[in-house]
Amino acid sequence: MSVAMIDEKVEGEIVEKNSSIFKIEDFNLWYGTNQAIYGVNLSIPQNKITAVIGPSGCGKSTLLKTLNRMNDMIPGVRTSGQVMYNNQDIFRNKQMVEELRTQVGMVFQKPNPFPKSIYDNVAYGPRIHGIKKKKVLDEIVENSLKGAAIWDEVKDRLNQNAFSLSGGQQQRVCIARCLAIEPDVILMDEPTSALDPISTSKIEELIKELKNNYTIVIVTHNMQQAARISDKTAFMLNGELVEFTDTDRLFSNPKDKRTEDYITGRFG
Amino acid sequence: MSRMRRRIILNQTFKYVFIFAMSLALIALSVLIYRILSQGLGHLNIDFLRQYPAPYPDKAGLFAGIMGSLYLMLLIAPISITIGVSTALYLEEYAAKNKFTRFIQTNVQNLAGVPSIVFGLLGLTFFVYLFSFGYTLIAGALTMSLLILPVIVVASQEAIRFVPNEIRQASIAMGATKWQTIWRIVLPAAIPGILTGSILALSRAIGETAPLIIVGAAAAIYTIPDSLTSKYTAMPIQIYNWTSRPQEEWQYIAGAGIIVLLVILLLMNSIAIWIRNKFQSRY
Ligand SMILES: Nc1ncnc2c1ncn2[C@@H]1O[C@H](COP(=O)(O)OP(=O)(O)OP(=O)(O)O)[C@@H](O)[C@H]1O
Ligand SMILES: [Mg+2]
User: Fold this and answer.
1) Which of A61, A120, A124, A188 to mutate to test the interface with B (most CBs of B within 10 A)?
2) What is the dihedral of CA B247, B250, B255, B258, to 10 degrees?
3) Which residue of B has its CA nearest to A113?
4) Which of A59, A265, B39, B215 might form a disulfide with B255, Cβ 3.0–4.6 angstroms?
């Protein structure tokens, strides 16, 4: 928590040292003629949990999906400005988009395992990237499932279809599947909104643990969740980034009136 | 109150109308099956399945027809499924959703409803004459492949569309290419639907007669095909030939042939239903 108390103004230099892994600059995004993101500037710190909050439709998912270029698949999407990942513009450098996505993994709102066995789900990523040796795969699968805190629950049924698991278990298998490609960043779009409270708290615990090895960006509707798990919080409204600062600060002492209105539940 | 009564009476009336309609269909079907069974069963035996066509009813058999249909299937299945599934994949996964794609889409659906004899004429023009295949096995197989292609395309498209977008996204988000996603995720998930549709389409091909007559399947065949350019026959061709003979005895032989054909069709349809049920409710 060394950055926690550092003021916004000096953050620029500090961030260099603490290496922000993503640097979004003057970023705009349009769906056809509809602008969804307006001039966002945001630096996402490495090995921290960054939460993105804001009312429905404000562009949280859009911003998140920009980071691994999942918006590319939607016809009619246009962008301007830049998104630097490890000092490379993800839209302009020669690195292939597939490579970016192996470094920036994603966990979706609804658990979406493949209609395959638990093992094949987790082994999918390594396999598409060319790993064939059974022993290597076995090891990756075990480590990933352990990393997602679900190994003990599934180790005796790795060959069962992933659909036979509960929603919360499925989501942790999806997290394991994401860990198996050894990403640096994990994007999570409301990963617990489809889950019951117990599964939710399990996944929150897991996310906090993952922080040691991964940078996590999490979109959430649940402000308590953002407050509980994140180091930094970004508040978005109507496609704009209103405020971005340390989570404690944002919730205890918001600078912007709109942030205050939102976190005190006056709108949204 | 009276309104309610009217609705209930109407409800009852329609129920009886539907039951009546269904009974008519069932009665017609039973009469047909009874007639075929009573005429054909007596002539159905191992020899009937093993013998070639012959000028005498008690020497005539369906062997050439069965083998001809089998060889046709062995060609039609790979040709039509490969082309059909590729087309469906292109339309669903790659083609831009514009006017042109919709135009193609509508016409594929229309083609599925074109009478089979038209495909026969198409086959005659293209494969028999233009490509100079003549009245050969490959000309027949290509013609039949065209005939069932639209059905396979439409069924495969439905199966592919049924694969949830979420799992495509999950795969893409892990750095898989589009092709890897299609090959490893979409196709395996769609295969039960594709298989079901393809088997039903093939079972249509196995019973079709008109196009085969036009592209020159022959009735008097005493060998099984040994190359793509062999002369050939098929089960429905044999049966049609027998039914058009004047002596009553031949009708019984035809009945026996129909029973064999029906059993094969029922088997294929059961396999299709079995596959569908086995893989249903996965999402
Ligand atoms: N595929 C799309 N095509 C066109 N417009 C879109 C698309 N996806 C999102 N939008 C629009 O972009 C804006 C931002 O959407 P986005 O999904 O990013 O919001 P969100 O903050 O994630 O909302 P929620 O909290 O409901 O998930 C919305 O106005 C939405 O209608
Ligand atoms: Mg969203």
Assistant:
1) A124
2) -130
3) B167
4) B39
Q: For residue A254, what are the contacts with CB-CB under 8 A and spacing of at least 6?
A: A235, A243, A260, A263
Encoded tokens for A204: 């929150």
Listed residue (A244, A247, A267, A265) closest to A256, CA to CA: A244
Number of domains composing chain B: 2
Domains of chain A: 3-263 (3.40.50.300)
pLDDT for B249-277, tens place per residue?
A: 899 999 999 999 999 999 999 998 888 88
Q: In terms of domains, do B190 and B265 share one?
A: yes
User: Are B170 and A177 in contact (CB < 8 Å)?
Assistant: yes
**Dist CA A44 CA B116 (whole Å):** 64
Q: Give residue for tokens 């005190």.
A: A264
Q: Which of B248, B249, B236, B256 is nearest to B64 (CA)?
A: B236
If you take atom 5 of ligand 1, which residue's CA is the nearest one?
A31
Task: Determine the Cα–Cα distance for residues B203 and B207; give it in Å rounded to an integer.
Answer: 7
Instruction: State whether B137 and B241 are in the same domain.
Output: yes
If DSSP codes are grouped into helix, strand and coil, which group holds residue A83? Answer: strand
Tell me, rounded to whole angstroms, the distance of Cα A232 from its chain centroid: 13
What CATH number corresponds to the domain at position B119? 1.10.3720.10
Check pocket membership of A34 for ligand 1, CB cut-off 6 A.
yes
Both ends of chain B: CA-CA distance in Å?
44
Strand partners, A117: A161
As beta bridge partners, residue A188 has A107, A218
**Around Cβ B46, how many Cβ atoms within 10 Å?**
8
Q: Are residues B9 and B80 in the same domain?
A: no
Tokens at A69, concatenated: 């270029």
ipTM above 0.95, yes or no: no
Instruction: Give which of B172, B174, B279 to mutate to test A binding, by max A Cβ within 10 Å.
Output: B174
- Domain with B133, as residue range(s), is 47-279
Cα dihedral A72, A77, A79, A82 in deg (nearest 10): -10
Closest CA to B44 of B239, B267, B247: B239
